[in-house]
Amino acid sequence: MIYKDTFELIDISTAERASRLDDTAWANTMEWTEILSLASYMTCYKIKSGHLVFSEGDKDIFMGLVLRGSVKIFKEVNNKKQALTTVTKNKTLGEMALIDGQRRSASAVAIKDSVILFISQEEMDEMSQHDPVIWGKLLLKIGRLMSQRLRATSSALVDSIKR
Questions:
Q1: In this predicted structure, what is the pLDDT of residue 130?
Q2: CB neighbours of 125 closer than 8 A, spacing ≥ 6?
Q3: Which pTM was predicted?
Q4: DSSP classification of residue 6
Q5: What is the DSSP string of 138-152?
Q6: Which domains does the chain have, with CATH numbers?
Q7: What is 19-55 written as a DSSP string?
Q8: Looking at the predicted structure, is the pLDDT value of residue 2 above 60?
């Protein structure tokens, strides 16, 4: 579940969300009008350090773009938290669930006070109907990101096998 009860909604205009989005690599293939459109589907929250963003096994489907702060991604292995990565400014979390609709494969916790732009599955579905070009550009960006991460994971796996 998204832990919105522990998040602080940052009530800013679509133009302000677009401006913050424009400062990231996520907007580098879009025109300003497209960035405005994408931003209209996103919601901005502040999450305090130590608060969960999502837990492994959760079924809520959304992706977040970290604008400020950092979020640790981890798995529980033998009752111990095993850190997988830290998501920092201009990086995303949750895109796998947004694409495949599966339960969360890991947990995420803010390790610094963070500001994150979120887009939910419902908002993605609405975008696909009303702004299919923006939707397609976002999906392509997510696909490229997931491909890069898979390549890095494959490389790390090969390195660990060599040891």
A1: 97
A2: none
A3: 0.88
A4: G
A5: HHHHHHHHHHHHHHH
A6: 4-162 (2.60.120.10)
A7: HHHHTSGGGTTS-HHHHHHHHTT-EEEEE-TT-EEE-
A8: no
SS3 60: coil
Q: Which two tokens stand for residue 10?
A: 């940052």
Calculate mean pLDDT across residues 56-63.
Answer: 92
Host H or E run for residue 123: helix 121-130
Rounded to 5 degrees, what are φ and ψ at 142?
-65, -45
Output the six-digit token pair for 101.
């609709």
Q: Which residues of 114-130 are buried (b: 16+ CB within 10 A; e: fewer)?
A: bbbbbbbeebbeebeee
**Pick from 19-28, 73-82, 101-110, 148-157: least confident:** 148-157
82 φ/ψ angles, rounded to the nearest 5 degrees: -110, 110
Residues 10/104/89/12 CA torsion (nearest 10 deg)? -20
- 47 has which bridge partners? 7, 114
Work out the average pLDDT over 131-152: 89
SS3 content of the chain, % helix, strand, coil (to 5): 45, 30, 30
On the question of pLDDT at 3 being above 70, the answer is no
CA neighbor of 82 nearest in space, from 115, 49, 56, 113: 56
pLDDT at 1 over 50: no
